[in-house]
UniProtKB/TrEMBL annotation:
Belongs to the bacterial ribosomal protein bL33 family. HAMAP family: Ribosomal_bL33 (MF_00294). This is Large ribosomal subunit protein bL33. Keywords: Ribonucleoprotein, Ribosomal protein. It comes from Cerasibacillus terrae.
Length: 49
């Protein structure tokens, strides 16, 4: 499978989403544009530790 990672909003730093990531194929941090319920708009969400 993969490693479970948490995505946090870049603007408000709220942790909104979780997803799986294949560590052997992707060594960099995951960045996805997702909807943030706190901000009320689409923002960049980055992988947290």
């Amino acid at each position: 499978m993969g490693e479970k990672v948490t995505l946090a909003c870049e603007n408000c730093a709220s942790r909104n989403y979780t997803t799986n990531k294949n560590v052997s194929k992707q060594s960099t941090r995951l960045e996805v544009r997702k909807f943030c319920k706190t901000c009320g708009k689409h923002t960049l969400h980055r992988e947290t530790k």
